Amino acid sequence: MKYIEEYRDGRLARGFAARIAVAARPERDYRFMEFCGGHTHAIARFGVAGLLPANVRMIHGPGCPVCVLPVGRIEMAIRLAERPEVTLCTYGDLMRVPALQGSSLLKTKAAGADIRVVYSTLDAIRIAEAEPRREVVFFAIGFETTTPPTALAIRLAAKKSLTNFSVFCNHVLTPSAIRNILESPELRALGRLHIDGFIGPSHVSTVIGTQPYEFFAKEFQKPVVVTGFEPLDVMQAILMLIRQVNEGRHEVENQYVRAVARDGNPIAKAAVAEIFELRKSFEWRGLGTVPYSGLRLKTAYAAFDAERRFDLKEIAGHDNPACECGAILRGVKTPAECKLFGTLCTPDTPMGSCMVSSEGACAAHWTYGRFHEQPRKVA
Amino acid sequence: MSTKPYRRRLDIRNGRVDLSHGSGGRAMAQLIAEIFHQALDNEWLRQGNDQAAFDVRGGRMVMTTDAYVVSPLFFPGGDIGSLAVHGTINDIAVGGARPLYLSASFIIEEGFPLADLKRIADRMGAAAGSAGVPVITGDTKVVEHGKADGVFISTTGLGIVLPGLDLSAENARPGDRVILSGTIGDHGVAIMSTRRNLAFATDLVSDSAPLHDLVATMVEAGGHGLRVMRDPTRGGLAATLNELAHQSNVGFRLDEDAIPVRPEVAAACELLGLDPLHVANEGKLVAIVAPATAETVLDAMRAHPLGRDAVVIGEAVADDHCFVQMTTGFGGGRLVDWLSGEQLPRIC
């Protein structure tokens, strides 16, 4: 329990804020991207941005698995759930994501489809065991943190010889996405997007380690600090990034030494490698098609692959043309720069995916931070 | 009800509710007599009329109604029966009124164990008895298996406004203090701890309690300074303060460090990705109080067992946007917004 108080201590926060203010050189700007939606949420919820000097800015990255899932993949899940024999098991965040023609999993469920919110892959396995006549499909999404549990579920289903369980796999990879952002035309050629460094998510690195970031820290000369999700972790990481920038270093540093090792978790990595293989490419909302950024089930586990089992075809989806989720996910625009933000698009009536998940940049900004933009009236 | 039209008593230990218990016939009369009348006994129910008659004196009355569909029916610190009494009493109490009478209607699913129904009725009777607010009329319906989930209860309450009070959600003004009667999130987390798939071990119990006596104490201490009161149930403290902000056209500034949250609630919320500010309470109230009387009201609350942890958590401010803002314990600032959709755990 104590971890909550210790890593949220206001006195220590002020100490970090003072050290950041001293370290940040007034003659320049510092722009850091927190890749992960969990960090976006923490920064907004604890008011971290308000403790930073004006020339240190955080840019929200694409690390929210709900936000980067393209409309077409949601639509595929909806059509799958509409089959009478299918029970679709999903994490709750996906229920309200808008798909084609205003549909969503929530509306599809209301219309009679058997869609159930689960809290873990094992819940889906239990449903498959308890209801052998149902075709139970787990809607798997997420980065390296949620991939090992999916791998273990498939391994368990194989061990139990379950014939009515499969996975609709949408797992994606963090390093590929960061690399894609660094190679994007805005960053490379146009110079519109300037990012001085990255905050890497600690939970991803508990699995993959810090080593996968070393290549592009060197290649693109951008520092990376892998850090935890408590606000003090984030503050310390920001200080570490500023120091790297000031000293002209571009290294991968590990702030989260309490759980992250350079090589990650070999058991989890082995489980993932046993079950999954790389797709040649995968579509990301906002980033477009990113090579070698998604996973699918290996042929040996084809029986558990919902895409093969139900012969699912890719569906092209289009976002509302005014929706800026794409630019926001790449850090090119802020939520408030989208015309739909707070007018047509709110957490209660989301138009784009960034507004749906609590970890989406738009939802975090709407929920915790939108008063920053309002002219402040004095009481 | 001097002579009974049925020979054998209900088999409460092994029996189940069937459709005949809602048919208006002998079985229904027996169910009502042996379960509900026994548990909720009072002079009005004893008369066995289709309505209860009582005299009213002059004054301003309040009336409220609420449906209870909680799952599970029995949870740590309470059950649907006592909740149906406390919840409706509290809706009357936060209107600054003394609750007088309750009615209760039951929608029962075919097959529901009589033993559970009796337990619920008994708890309801005990809650009404200790609150001093009798259930004076009621109704029973039975629906086919699968058309309800065990039992749903709806209660209506009548009360009379305490003298000298003018409470309304439009009354909050800049400078008013926001007083919270105790810890938040206890009820919601206690319920969640029992939900399938979420089950986690905790000693935490629901805060379900009747608040009318606490309210009477507050009114006595500083009634003229009370602007408005609410019990932050579904949607939690965040929803309540956003509602009041919009209705009074003010903003609120809160201090996160001042808001009492039990460590076990904070831990459970952290685990489930929830914010205690959005979690339901069933025995807490928020009072918006004029600054001059805030201390007096607070002292009176703290002297009452249900207000021991009462505290000022912030104040109303002039704000055309009606934002509820909070200084976080971390030192930053953030909005406290309504909950959107359901409370969903984060997935990564």
Main attributes of the structure:
heterodimer, A: 379 residues, alpha/beta, Rossmann fold, 3 domains, five-stranded parallel β-sheet, four-stranded parallel β-sheet, 17 helices, 38% helix, globular, disordered C terminus, B: 348 residues, alpha+beta, 60s Ribosomal Protein L30, Chain: A, Phosphoribosyl-aminoimidazole Synthetase, Chain A, domain 2, 2 domains, seven-stranded mixed β-sheet, four-stranded mixed β-sheet, 9 helices, 13 strands, 30% helix, 22% strand
Structure, described:
The complex is a heterodimer of chains A (379) and B (348). With 379 residues, chain A is of the alpha/beta class. Chain A has 3 domains: 2-62 and 188-199 and 220-251, HypD, alpha/beta domain 1 (Rossmann fold), CATH 3.40.50; 67-174 and 264-309, Rossmann fold (3-Layer(aba) Sandwich); 325-364, no CATH class. Chain A has 17 helices and 13 strands. Chain A has helices at residues 2-6, 10-23, 37-45, 65-68, 71-81, 105-110, 121-130, 147-159, 174-182, 185-190, 202-208, 214-219, 231-246, 266-275, 306-309, 325-329, 361-369; strands spanning 30-36, 56-63, 86-90, 114-117, 135-142, 165-171, 197-201, 224-227, 252-254, 276-278, 281-284, 288-291, 295-297. The longest helix of chain A has 16 residues, at 231-246. Chain B contains 9 helices and 13 strands. Chain B has helices at 26-40, 43-46, 80-93, 114-131, 186-192, 212-222, 236-248, 263-272, 291-302; strands spanning 61-68, 74-75, 78-79, 97-109, 135-143, 151-161, 177-180, 226-230, 251-255, 286-289, 311-317, 324-327, 333-335. Chain B is globular. The termini of chain B are far apart. Classes of the chains: A alpha/beta (379), B alpha+beta (348). At the A-B interface, helix 2, helix 3 and helix 17 of A face helix 8 and strand 13 of B.
Major sheet characteristics of chain B? 7 strands, mixed
Most extensive interface, chain pair and sizes: A-B, 55 and 38 residues
The CATH level-2 architecture of the largest domain in chain A is identified as 3-Layer(aba) Sandwich
Q: Which overall shape of chain A is indicated by the principal axes computed on the Cα atoms?
A: globular
